[in-house]
Amino acid sequence: MEQALFEQIYESVVRREPKYDGVYYTAVLTTHIVCRPSCRARTPKAGNVVFYDSLEQAVAAGFRPCKRCRPEEGGVLRPDALLASETDKLMEAQFGQKVTLQSLAAQLKVSPFHLQRTYKRVTGRSPAERLDQLRVEKACALLADTELAVAEVGQAVSFRGPSHFAAWFIRKTGLAPTEYRSQIQGGIHHE
Ligand SMILES: [Zn+2]
């Protein structure tokens, strides 16, 4: 599971929010119990948690369903949360291309209006905001961990022209891509 998604689901565990109930299942390594993310029991440490996207898998891996939160009963937001998680998967796969609310909605066979409203209700932000954040994360990782030229990093996160990419990157992070890279690499030299 991708780290950002893990953190997003784990945040709902910490806050005991039901948005991922019925979509992901919290398996706790220390107790061998599997819960719905909103379970009211004591919050497990992130390091002791594995998320499964089906209860069957968790049970097959040796986890017992929690008697308190009854993960087998699904969740109130299940259809909405499923749509949001499908949207996340699409954006994760397509952040390097041009993506619009319309193109996402068409792939998910819902109206753009419904997608916008539902996604925001489940995750607290719009698909466009999430896509932007995803591209920032990917661009930062590429600048930090690869030798790719700035223009290539821009292309990898859907920007055709390097100046357009640089302007967007500055707006999001306060730093030019080259500054970001040299700060990160400078940090490594000091260690
Ligand atoms: Zn539970």
TrEMBL record:
PROSITE patterns: HTH_ARAC_FAMILY_2. The keyword DNA-binding applies. It holds the Pfam family Ada_Zn_binding. The keyword Magnesium does not apply. Keywords: Activator, DNA-binding, Methyltransferase, Transcription, Transcription regulation, Transferase. Residues 85-183 form the HTH araC/xylS-type domain. Its cofactor is Zn(2+). PANTHER family: HTH-TYPE TRANSCRIPTIONAL ACTIVATOR RHAS-RELATED. This is AraC family transcriptional regulator. It comes from Paenibacillus helianthi. The lineage of its organism: Bacteria, Bacillati, Bacillota, Bacilli, Bacillales.
